[in-house]
Please model this.
Amino acid sequence: MSGHTDMVLVDKKGVRIDGRKADEHRPVHIEAGVLGNADGSAYLEIGKNKVLAAVYGPRECHPRHLQDPTKAIIQCKYNMQAFSVSDRKRPGPDRRSIEISKIIAEALEKVVLTELYPRASIDVYIEILQANAGTRCAGLTAASVALADAGIPMRDIVPAIAAGKADGHVLLDLNKEEDNYGEADVPLAIVPSTDEIVLLQMDGNMTRKEFDKALDMAFGACHELYDVQKAALKKRYAVSKEGDEDE
Amino acid sequence: MSEYVISEIKRDHIMNLLKEGRREDGRSVDDIRDIQIMTGCVESADGSARVKLGNTEVIAGVKIIPGTPFGDTPDSGVLTMGAELIPMAHPSFESGPPGENAIELARVVDRGIRESGMVDVKQLCITAGEEVWMCFVDMYALNYDGNLFDASNLAAVCALRTAVIPGEQYGKGQNRPLPVTCTPVSVTSVKIGNDLILDPNFDEEMISSARLTVTTDDKGNFRAMQKGGNGSITRDELNLCLDRAVEKGKAVRKIIG
Model:
């Protein structure tokens, strides 16, 4: 958002550097149930982002003073692996990842039926293997699938995607260059069955009109991602229906 | 903060009042509390402000020192913000390194100030690629009665507006005011039941399900937003928050002067 470049991010025909149109998101691939030990897991790629999410629980809550006698708590750890960005990222939590973990856990709390598991903890681990802008949304989208894969009762699954602004154009799902040299970024996550907003951030510079347009795009794309999430879960459990797998 | 319990009777009282559009302290749903600003309250800082938003009180201090620039911005100064929720401010705050609430607070204030371009970091270059002014803003909650986001933003903005680059102290030219270009103002709404209220006090904040902070610039454009809390907001509720953020942002900017 702060950088400057002579690069043309959107050409005269409205085509972006990776060939997409303004309201087009990057290709998405989601696979549910990819890890052996976790109670639920998912692998997600959107463009060059590669994300793994794993869920453990409901299980005993540690540290115990965080226990809530009325419901389960959701603990999320979002982590960028050291090799996920061009410069090596110093391992361990930083301020950015702590903030992202917090807002992802809050977004998931809205849909998980936490009241069924008092005193328990549902632990969500998100590992970014490769980052190319939009990792918090990719992580949340994957985490929702992993929660469903873990068999945790939920009201709905949560898709997330960002919209933003670059070269004066409102664009869906910014890539790395558009994010670095663009003018604004708006990550959004919704509950698709009700269109409620569970995650919303914004930084940059946008007029009301631009913001509304960005939000329209992101809402539309969230519904598309929702279909991909459901398809991934169906694919995973269609196998066990045929009796090929013990689940 | 979240472990603090509000009694059912108090919760019901607040919600019943809201049904009639009223609040405990007599405000209407879109009123913000009185603002008191005291700048220059700490001489050892290069800029400081102590702000009261109702009973919520925050102090912010700026320290500006020479340092090395980041590799990708060799000719720009550095802006860093931190917040601490110290035990003196509330019985629920514990000592120790900043937790996730303090980190989120600092990062949301940081985002509004950074993205609005309030501090002209290009003018903080001493020798490109070698030496720039590094501007540290540290915020401490002194008394917590809800809405630390807006109080901290206010304190940081007021401290920065009065900050002076201490050139003489470091033999780097004359003292000069920190170059600031605009006044970013954040306005926070919370959702209680199906009601949206501005500038929540402690009790209101504790029983709220969702929070939205919106930072606008002098033109009323959006510079930063952050939704928090386990609850959700609808698109219509979002629009109401945005309208109020623009309107109240203008009013607060007038108070800042």
User: Anything to note?
Assistant: The CA atoms of residues 149 and 257 of chain B lie 20 Å apart. The radius of gyration of chain B is 19 Å.
